[in-house]
User: Which sequence fits this backbone?
């Protein structure tokens, strides 16, 4: 059910992207802005925005510009992240800075960002609600920057504690999901309590998804994950699992050892399993998602609300 | 007179920046965002925004958030430009990417950009006018990106014609000045004709200033310019002067020769003078500024309007 809905909404969003972000002069700039957008993807954020609108009495066609805008914001962060990480591939495509060079990729990201606000400002809703949603999306973007900054800061620190990690994840990944949901609600005339419930749902499930993703990296076999199991360990990422293990006095010698052997990584994963840190993180992830789902209890029952609840479950079930 | 006004308004803007962009968590990110902002500057764009508001019946205190926002947008473009150009110094300070590293500088710029829209969304005006001004600033930012993209593209082209150059300059530098002016008008309840007049004034004088700047680089002695005379020639910049000379069949051998001697640059400048291209550009600059000033004739007379006209003259008189 939810997968079918995701496919349908993604198709509508794809068409709206082509409509709201046509290639115009200078053509090559617009082509670089569309590069990752055209590669597709699940369109989770715009779909969540549309479902939030529908769950609060709104209509998809009225929030489509906003849905496109949040997808553009997401893609802008991907382009700039790839420059910062010097990544070469994204969604199976060569990254924007690898294809057009670093200066052009900075511009492509910046331009996507501007276009997102241009499109948001065209939203069909009461002007006061449009202003509120723009303020929210802008605040969300500031939050993403704060989370990104913290993430870079963490790379050179050994003393990151759980609360800091959760704040970083909330800002780096959950706020845009939450911001998309709340934007859908605001533009649809939702009351403050409903809009807040959708924000809370987004933050809690968003943090849950990210923790789950960190668990998945450790427990999923390479043939299903599509990349080496335990890649996060070799990268030295301070995930909740690592932070929890360190707090228990567990030492992971190969943390950050980019040329660690499969056997070494396997042993590190065993150590983390024995320490209970993987279970700890998995329980946390499920706990966040459940708490997020319960936040939606203030909304009247509707098909859209059921789909949002299904989406939350789907997000922590999707791998294997 | 105008210099005194600029000083006073700059002081108000400086205080507003400190108020609207306080250093908060993560502190270092906000410090990096304030780095160039705190170095001062003439605050031409926010001052123009305030004067436009006053010239259309508005009050400075109501448009201060917007004035801060356009200065933040300007600074965001400087941070990203410095990364692209690998510049080491700006306003006598080490650049953001030199001090904090490239990834952090990308984030600092992005965060300034978000904050600008956050602050704009707090503007005190009718919501429909706030939405219009946000749409305008966003469109302006897209324009800056387009101009920047064209500028990079021109570096590898020998066939840039005058119209393309003027379009690039309009987008890269004039739209933000024009956008600031029109934003001040929109937020102050100006009619469409007045708002458009301020936009036209900004575009025309902005293009004029930039052409004048290119002339200044060639005709100002090093001790006044503060950098080598004819630096643009050594950098290979396709300024209006160069484009005009090339269109007349004049060849500048040292164009783009970064290690050209003073004598070689001097000779190139003489050649450009003889070709009439420097006079051509200077006339164009003055013509744009005059045309810009005449656009303001639709506004009722006021002190603010007189100051805007003075500002235009001041901008093409300032050097020596």
Assistant:
């Amino acid at each position: 059910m939810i997968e079918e809905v995701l496919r349908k909404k993604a198709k509508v969003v794809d068409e709206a992207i082509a409509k709201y972000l046509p290639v115009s002069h200078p053509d090559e700039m617009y082509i670089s802005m569309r590069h990752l957008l055209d590669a597709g993807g699940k369109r989770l954020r715009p779909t969540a925005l549309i479902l939030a609108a529908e769950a609060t009495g709104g209509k998809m066609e009225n929030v489509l510009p906003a849905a496109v805008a949040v997808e553009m914001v997401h893609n802008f962060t991907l382009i700039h992240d790839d420059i910062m990480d010097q990544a070469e591939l994204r969604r199976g495509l060569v990254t924007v800075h690898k294809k057009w060079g670093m200066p052009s990729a900075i511009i492509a990201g910046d331009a996507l960002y501007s276009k997102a606000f241009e499109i948001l400002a065209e939203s069909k809703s009461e002007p006061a609600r449009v202003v509120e949603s723009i303020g929210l999306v802008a605040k969300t973007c500031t939050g993403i920057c704060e989370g990104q900054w913290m993430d870079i800061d963490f790379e050179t620190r050994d003393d990151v504690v759980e609360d800091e990690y959760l704040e970083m994840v909330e800002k780096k990944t959950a706020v845009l999901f939450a911001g998309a949901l709340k934007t859908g609600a605001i533009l649809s005339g939702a009351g403050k309590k409903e809009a807040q419930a959708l924000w809370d749902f987004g933050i809690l499930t968003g943090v849950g998804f990210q923790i789950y993703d960190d668990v998945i990296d450790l427990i999923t076999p390479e043939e299903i994950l599509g990349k080496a199991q335990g890649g996060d360990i070799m990268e030295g990422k301070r995930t909740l699992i690592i932070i929890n293990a360190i707090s228990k006095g567990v030492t992971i010698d190969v943390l950050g050892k980019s040329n660690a052997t499969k056997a070494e990584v396997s042993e590190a994963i065993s150590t983390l399993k024995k320490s209970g840190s993987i279970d700890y993180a998995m329980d946390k992830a499920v706990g966040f998602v459940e708490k997020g789902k319960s936040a939606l209890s203030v909304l009247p029952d509707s098909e859209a609300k059921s789909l949002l609840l299904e989406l939350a479950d789907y997000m922590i079930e999707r791998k294997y």
Notes: The mean pLDDT of chain B is 95. The two ends of chain B are 18 Å apart (CA to CA).
